[in-house]
Amino acid sequence: MGGQDEPIKARLRRELLSRRRAMDPEQVAAVSRAACGCVAAWPGFALAEHLVLYASRQGEADPSALAVTARARRIDIYYPRVVQGQLEFRRAAAEELSTGAFGLLEPGPAAPLLDPNAEGVLVIVPGLAFDGAGRRLGTGRGFYDRALGRMSRAVRLGMVATALMVERLPEDPWDVPMHGIVTETGIIDMRGVASNSGAHPSGD
């Protein structure tokens, strides 16, 4: 059950995963709609040429509504795929996804691959929790940290319910911080500006 000697991140993952799973589906749906609305109205979204989404799991904020807006704006949409212990992003529509690694929906191996050096990339990043400084707590496998570490030009925007925002998360040297966080209440960028429409995290 964990104790004083349990690693901090492991304890937080256990506690936050339990909290996320306990969230009411209607609450999660409302959070997802509001968060997607904040991103769609954000000037940074209008600059995107490539949008990376994810297939949500139980209790996780769902970014799928952004696909509708992205298609209308002719923005290419990508989803993560696990290949030999690494995460890559391949272009696909939601209906083209199928069950892959860890039981998650992912694109097929023939779907076009996103160039890690491409410009105009906005990545919507899932997480168990985030804090106001852009730190992220994932599942512990390191897939997103390794993938995002290779995408220096991409803008990283974490998506999460405010119920899963924490005051401060522990940080390891390999952790890749977010440029911004979107919740149902708006977008927080790491320059210290909070907005549901005007915040634009720097991709530098």
Number of helices: 5
What is the helical fraction, as a range of percent? Answer: 10-25%
CATH architecture classification: 3-Layer(aba) Sandwich
Oligomer: single chain
How far apart lie the N and C ends?
Answer: 42 Å
Strand content: 15-25%
Description:
The protein has a single domain, classed as Rossmann fold, CATH 3.40.50. Helices cover 24% and strands 24% of the residues. It has helices at 8-21, 25-40, 43-46, 65-72, 143-149; strands at 50-52, 76-83, 86-91, 98-99, 105-106, 121-125, 129-131, 136-137, 155-159, 165-166, 180-183, 186-189, 194-195. Mean pLDDT is 89; it is low at 1-5 and 192-204.
Write the layout of secondary structure elements.
Layout: H1 8-21, H2 25-40, H3 43-46, E1 50-52, H4 65-72, E2 76-83, E3 86-91, E4 98-99, E5 105-106, E6 121-125, E7 129-131, E8 136-137, H5 143-149, E9 155-159, E10 165-166, E11 180-183, E12 186-189, E13 194-195
Parallel strand pairs: 1-2, 1-6, 6-9, 7-10, 9-11
Antiparallel strand pairs: 2-3, 4-5, 7-8, 11-12, 12-13
